[in-house]
Amino acid sequence: MPEISMFDAKAFLATVPQQPGVYRMINAAGTVIYVGKAKDLKKRLSSYFRKEVDSIKTRALVSQISQVEFTLTHSETEALILENNLIKEYLPKYNVLLRDDKSYPYILLSAHKHPRISSHRGPRKVPGQYFGPYPNAGAVWHSLKTLQKIFPIRQCEDGFYRARTRPCLQYQLKLCSAPCVGKISDQDYSEQVRLATLFLSGKNQQVIDDLVQKMNSASEQLQFEAAAAYRDQISALRRVQEQQHVSGEHEELDAIGFSLQGQTAVVHVLFIRDRKILGSKSYYPKVPADTEAAEVLSAFLLQFYLSGHSEQQIPKEIVLPLEIPDTEALADAISKLAEHKVRLTYAKRGEKAQYLALAQKNAAIALDSRQSLTQKMRARYQALQQQLALDHPISRMECFDISHTMGQATIAACVVFDGEGPYKQEYRRYNVTGVTAGDDYGAMRFALDKRYGKLSDESKIPDIVFIDGGQGQLNIALEQFANWPFAKKPLLIGVAKGVSRKAGLETLILWDSGRSIHLPEDSLALHLIQQIRDEAHRFAITGHRNKRGKALLKSPLENIAGIGEKRRQALLQYLGGLQGVLQASVAELCKVPGISKQQAEKIYQACQNK
Description:
The protein contains 20 helices and 19 strands. The chain is of the alpha+beta class. The strands form 4 sheets. Strands 12, 13, 14, 15, 16, 17, 18 and 19 form an 8-stranded mixed β-sheet that branches. It has a 5-stranded mixed β-sheet with strand order 9-8-7-10-11. Strands 2-1-3 form a 3-stranded antiparallel β-sheet. Helix 4 (76-90) crosses helix 12 (327-338) and helix 11 (293-306) runs parallel beside helix 12 (327-338).
């Protein structure tokens, strides 16, 4: 680690102007370790290099600085926006980081000509509008069912939508307006999409007002069927509105609850829209040691509102639990993104204070729960370390499992636990190829080679590798690690199920001694092993089921050489769907535009084999 003397702070500060901007602190390895912004760069940077610095965090940061770079901006607001972008790019270790949480489901309204409404989980790469996050998949499913009854917007997959030549059952049930076959005009469909967007944004009353106006207009023009359809939509919306609790008089605001203890922080955001609590969510930012509460909250607000983590429309007011620095500049930056004035306020009485108290209570409960889980997990790690007589704490464990059905659709899975529990960013699934169907040993060899065959980052070498299986699977792992090139070598442990395959009867097989261990059912070490083994099993079987499901749903047309997407669409449209293609003769297939006799024979043979 470089010493302070390696960086000539005095010479550097002589070049720094007294202007707003963003600075990047870089260590000897060339890694950006901190990004900050300042209204006056010279004044801010000088504060880091004083002889007496009270903050332990600042002293640790300064001791690693090898280089400092800065970028000038026109204003402090521009500096805030640039700081946020650079934090996202570099993920510096000394900054508070709001991790991207891809585990929560959203409702996606796609950007197609006829938008599709569906659930979405994972990276938000599909073009469209995202609404959420929702606490679980059940909440999304319930919302989609409600939406389908009110707004007849398609929910079908794109492949099904493009292949339609007549309306499906959803149209007959009045759950879809069948834009695929022109049963609704593009203008009317777009209007339904607009109303659904308002509904998902919490603007229920505005939707009802619009529908009432349309119903009255249709009645005046003697379009009674259209008026009746609007009436039914209004009734459905009013039933939904009656089920929701109207909270108060404030039309829209976010109440921010915050709780910090040590390096564990929780920020709970309460979303109030259209005078009701639309939802809430707890966030757990990564906090460096010795970081003050105001700095954590300020960093959260910056990243949450400027990075698109909040998929709700940014409100006109954000209520904060404590004072933070640069409030005015942060409010200006958020206002610029929201394209309307946003105020950051501190409520001490009235309805806003009640919202804030509720958010604070939720944050405190979430922190207690988080710390309880952390303490429980830490106790399990310590018990396993003692049981295995390791002379160092366990910082990384990996577990492998194989899943298939009669040898078909084989998936190998690897799950990773770091020092705090599941580390899902490092989970991996492998499609097993080139292995005899049903050969679990071959599949395990394939997975281990994929995982460790080209490993170059020594920091990712686990302390323990668990193999879900007995001595046979463990022997495969021993072969893989026989010529291990690194100094650090993981401890290999086979986890064999008991004769009755009941939890608590597992046998641990240690590779170094070949001895077997039976842990008591109440052992914390056994509970940790069961947790990582069960997680590997869950992850493997989920991947296997997805792969098997795709194989069952796959069209036989997709495997025919020379038959691309356009020809498949022509076949489906001309012959009335997949069943028509499967039943067609060679002569009938030849009549499809773009299909030659040779291609028709290939298609016929493929369909007969199917």
